[in-house]
Specification:
Urease, subunit C, domain 1, 9-stranded mixed β-sheet, 35% helix, globular
Length: 467
Amino acid sequence: MSEIISETAQEAGVLDRGRPILIRKAHLITMDDRIGDLLGDVLVKDGKIAEVGRELVCESAAVIDGTDRVVIPGFVNSHIHLWQTVIKGCAGDWSFGEYLQHILGAAGKHYRPEDVRVATLLGALEQIDAGVTTVYDWSHVLNTPDHADGAIDALEQSGIRAVFGHGTPGDDVVKWWFQSREGHPQDIVRIRKTRLASDQALVTLGMSLRGPDYAAAEINRADIELARSLGIMSSMHLAAGVFGEYLPHCRAMGAAGLLGPDINLVHCNRLTDDEIAMAIDQGASISVTPEVEMQMGHGLPVTGRVQAAGGRITLGTDVVSSVSADMFSQMRFAVQSQRMLENSKAHELGRMLDRLPISARDVLNCATLQGAESLGMATRIGSITPSKDADLTILSWPPHQASPLADPVQAVVFHGSVANVETVMIGGRVHKFRHRPVGSAPAEGRQAAQIGMRIMAAAGFQPASRV
Ligand SMILES: [Zn+2]
C-alpha cells in the first residue's frame, strides 16, 4: 500500500508526525468508570491518550471537531478468521456441516501464502474501516511457514492492532480436526523467537488451539503447555453444536488446571452452568459470536448466562465467509437475542418483563473493554483513559437525518453502522478520517475476487445462489 494520503486528513494536520491531536466537544463514552461519560475533549500525544476533560488546551494540536459526534474506545473483535475474506459471502446459506465440508474440508488446502496475505490484509482494512482497532485473528489455514508469514506481513501492513492467533494447517480436516492426534505445529516457536517476540508491539502472538472438542485430551494438554511455555494466550472453539452425547470437556480442563486468564473459549453454547462458573472462576474469557451461532446451530448464545455468572463476555464476528464482519451487527444480535430468550421465558410463565435484562451499555462494554480484558490488553486499550494507547473510533450521523443522540450509547448500539464510522485512530495514528481511509486503496483489492473464485473452483463448490 503506498503512502498516498487523503488531502482532507493532510489539511487537517492529523497526519503530521509527532503532532498532538485534540478531539473537541464530543460525546465521550469512555468505558472508564472513574471518568464516566461526558461532553468533552480528548487530547492525544505520542500515540497515547494524554488527557480527557472539558475545555482542554493544546496550542500545537491538530483539532478534530467532535460536535454531534460520539467517541468510543475502538472496537475489539475477539474472534475472526480473516483468511476467509477472499471467499466472503459464499457460506451465508450453509449449515455447520456444509461449512466444515467446504471451507475446512476443501477450500483451506487451496490457499497459497499470497492468498492468505491478500485475504488477511483486506480483512484487516475492512475491520479498521468498521471502527475495529483490535482483532484476534484466528488463523487456521497455515499450511506452511510461508502462510503464517504472509498473514503476519498483512497484519503489520494494515496498521491494525492484532493478536495473530497461530493455528493449524487447513490442508487436511480429518488429520487436524477429528479428535486429532497431531500436536500444534512447531513453527509457532520460530515465530515467537523471531517476528513476534514482543508483547508490546502492535501485532502480538497467540495460539489458536483445536481444543478438546477437536483434538485428543493429551494433545490439547500439550498444546496449552506449549502456549504457556511461550508466554502467550490461547483461544479455542468449544461446545458448539450437538454431536451425540455431550461431553463436559470444559469441566475436565478446569479440573486439570488447564483453564486460566490466558484461555479464551469461543461459542460455549452447550456448556452447563457449572462449567461456565468454573471457566469464569478460573479467569477464562468467553467469546460470543451470536450471528453465526444462530445460523449454524451452535446453540443459544451464552451472553446472559455468562453475564449472570459475573464473567467476561467478548464479541466476535467469526466466519467472514458466512456473516457480517462488523461489530454493530454482533452487538445487536447479542443484545436482542438475549432479550428474546428472556421475553420467551416470561411468556411461558404467562407474563411480560418489567425490565430488560441486558442494556446497550452492557453490550458496548463487551465490544470494547471486555474484549481488551479477554486479550490481556486492558492496561493498554479498551477504554478512553489517560495513559492508554489512543485507539479511538469517532461516529457521526448525517445532518439530514434525525439525530439519534438522545442517548449516545444507544446511538452507537442501535443506530450505528459502518456508514457512521467517521474517524479511526490506532495508537494515535489516524487510519480513517471523515469517512475515508487515509491511505490509497490497496492494489490487492483487485486480486481478491479472482483469488476467491479460483479457490472455490478448486474446492469444487460455489455459493448456493450461483448454482
Ligand atoms: Zn471461529
